[in-house]
Amino acid sequence: MISPAYKYFLWSLVILAPTIFVYLQEWLFWRVTYRPERFGENPIPQVERAALVAIPFLILAIRVSWKSQFQDIKKSTVLSAALLGITLNFLLYGYAFYDGYVYWRDRPGTGANIGLGILMLLSPIWISLVMFGVRRTGSAKKEGCN
User: Fold this and answer.
1) Are 97 and 26 in contact (CB under 8 A)?
2) Residue 29: alpha-carbon gap to chain centroid
């Protein structure tokens, strides 16, 4: 059975994950490129990216809150799905930081990384599917469907 404190933890991820990944990455990028005054200059893209990061955790929190009313859900399965979502976002935003830094440092004469942009725009879909797949696999193992 999932305790209310555990549900609050999942709901807090909806707020904490975007704050950590988007704003920390943005702040770090402007610090490393010696332009700290640019941080927060245009907040609308930051808010949009934060919403993209929050969507998979919002789906997980809603799904767990809803399903826990009707059936028992293993905490370890939900925790592994949440940790996988955090890891995937960390890798994605870490690579975005690295890509932006290398572009700033080397000035390769190329434009924006369109593939990375598309991957980041579609991240709520594929991260949610991976998180749901992990949660689904854990549920199937719990029910004895080996």
Assistant:
1) no
2) 18
